[in-house]
Amino acid sequence: MVSDFSDGEVAAGSIGRDFFVPSTIPVGGEGEGAVTDFHARQSRVNFGVRHQVDENNRLGAFVEFDFLATAGGNERVSNSYSPRMRHAFITWNNWLVGQTWNTFMDVGTLPESVDFIGPAGSTTFGRQTQIRYTSGNFAVALENPETTITPFGGTGRIVTDDHLMPELAARYTWKGDWGHVQLGGMLRQLAYEDDALGIDDDEMSWGVSVSGKFPIGRDDIRWMVHHGDGLGRHVGLNFVNAAVLTDTGSLEPIGTTGGFVAYRHWWSERLRSTAVFGYLDVDNPVQYTGTGVSSGNWSGQVNLFYSPVDTLSFGVEYLTAEREIESGESGRLDRLQFTGKYSF
Questions:
Q1: Is 24 helix (H, G, I), strand (E, B) or coil?
Q2: In which element (H, E) is residue 129 found?
Q3: Which residues contact 105 (CB under 8 A, 6 or more apart)?
């Protein structure tokens, strides 16, 4: 991948050099020219089992690892990177227990992309430990809670881990020959307690999303729209926090609205392209956050994939993205990247 940041440089070893993370786009600095990176950290290994115990009971398990977003490794000699756990769960009939995609998101709408996620700045996204019950097209789960908070004035990030209530997430999916539409909802507690600072507050927050995939012959359109008050880490790879700490020590949720649309076209039996546009708008309480915090982002991608055989794909993609802060300043990323993938 070749990356050009218009308003500063992203340091070597930053996650923003491995894939598109909109919050890492510098704003207000001086660009230093394009940089080139090679890596194989997206490589993924998984193992799954399913077993029909008897006519009434089904058991299953799944574990998956890749090598992204870990502290180990460098580019000096051996490029040795530590594995990280993506998924680890068991299933029993309608129940799932363990870590996997959060119930709020719609994995099936993520477009094909050379970049690791695609419209990372505008989609709901996350994996976490949960207890999920699924019945037909309906799923509901209790999931691990966590709150990220912007300190008063907007500098830094507080990760609280002060929750009593788990997050409640649910979805319903309509399916047919015409494609699918999913409605998702989330209710969560935002909490922060620090006796030394005299802070002890919690707020309820919520979010809704509507998403879908519609086939058009062999082509397809994928889309998502979401809105919430305090969604925080569940949107845009934690592009903004769920709440800000006010001058009185209370929590003020931060609102977000966004979505994306993607169109995939098959040029031939072996050649295909996807074009994607994503957008996220943030409603910051500026009187508490100040004007240095992120206020929104947008991104556009277009790619071309070639599969000489069904299990092998080569792709090239151009990505352009912008991050804006409340003062009105913005920073730009332009990236050209190539990938090779063998699925087995």
A1: helix
A2: strand 127-135
A3: 123, 124, 125, 126, 184, 209, 234
The predicted-structure confidence for 159-170, as pLDDT tens digits, reads as follows 999 999 999 999
pTM assigned to the model: 0.94
pLDDT digits (tens, 9 = 90+) for 86-111: 999 999 999 999 999 999 999 999 99
Instruction: Note down the domain range covering 240.
Output: 2-342
CATH code at position 195: 2.40.170.10
Query: How many angstroms separate the Cα of 289 from the Cα of each of 114, 158, 200?
Result: 35, 13, 19
Q: Which of 29, 10, 4, 18 is nearest to 330 (CA)?
A: 29
CA angle 46, 47, 52 (to 5 degrees): 145
Distance CA 245, CA 229 (A): 15
234, 186 in Cβ contact below 8 A? yes
Count: domains in the chain: 1
Place of tokens 């080139």: 36
